[in-house]
Every structure is written in structure tokens, then in C-alpha cells.
Amino acid sequence: xxxxxxxxGGLVQAGGSLRLSCEVSGRxxxxxxxxxxxxAPGSQRELxxxxxxxxxxxxxxxxxxxxxISRDNAENTVYLQMNSLKPEDxxxxxxxxxxxxxxxxxxxxxxxxxxxxxxx
Length: 120
Known about the structure:
The protein is built from no helices and 11 strands. It is mainly beta. Strands 2, 4, 5, 6, 9, 10 and 11 form a 7-stranded mixed β-sheet that branches. Strand 7 (67-72) and strand 8 form a beta hairpin.
């Protein structure tokens, strides 16, 4: 049922900024955890930033201080503001939602990704 759609990627020069959006179908439920991942060519997918249902955030050390994750529950959207971009930030960025409808069950949903390319 849950659909995630990322947008906002593009080509930017080093030092520039982009704001990624992840629209969640339906609504973001209480307790949902949203995480941005990225995957560079030839590399494994890595965690970039996350925000819990309670609003607690976590960042990869490589992006801390440059990226900001936030959410707008009214519009069912999660954002990733990326500033001071570096070439190593290049990759496909994916939005992930983790939902636990019961204590025993956890579901994970992924978007299709949005390409971010940072030139030197």
C-alpha cells in the first residue's frame, strides 16, 4: 500500500545545494521511521540520515553539519536539505520508511530513488 516517491535530485557543482523530497502515500503514521540512503556507482547502499517518529535525527558522519533531514507530516513528505555538496555525495538517493503496525511485525518500504550528481 505504501508508495514512496523521491524527487529533487539533479546536477550541481561542488559547494552547491539540493533539497530532496520524499512523498509518502497515505500518511506518515505515528512511530514511522524515515531514512535517506544513497548508493554510489559500484558501492553498497549507505545510510545518510534518518528521522524517527518522535523527531529524533541521526546523520552519517560524512554529512553531519551539511545535510538536514526534516518532515512535514501534514503533507506526508520528508525532506533532505543538502548543503555544501561534495563530489563524493554523488549517488542515487533513496527514501525508506520503516513501519511497525504491531510489536511483532516490521515493514520496510523503498522509493525508486533520485539521482544526485555533484561535479568537481
